[in-house]
Amino acid sequence: MNTLLQQNSVICLKSAIAYPDSGVQRQTLLEDANCRYILLSMAAGAKVAEHAASRNVTVQGIEGQGLLTLKGKALLLEPGVLIFMPASALHSISADTNLTVLLTLSEKVDHNP
Length: 113
Fold this sequence. Notes:
Mean pLDDT: 90
Order of helices and strands: HEEEEEEEEE
Structural class: mainly beta
Distance between the termini: 34 Å
Number of strands: 9
Strand order of the largest sheet: 1-2-9-4-7
Largest sheet: 5 strands, antiparallel
Low-confidence stretches: none
């Protein structure tokens, strides 16, 4: 897979942001056997419809503002916010302004040993 970031490299996330004229743009920064790191940039007004991921996901606000609806609860996305979404949790995202988040998809963790 062609990724923006190679292992043991450094990147300034803000310099990697590229907003589409409309909709959503995804850039895979790095992918290994356990995790995938994706920079998700959304034009103001864009939406990602409700869906579920097969892996655990963290969503970290980098730039802009929007809402992440997780299991029916609206959560503010803005710089510095970190949200954990367990695998299979229904969620959607909407961008109030141009919005960029860092998604980290990891292996599903069984919290019930």
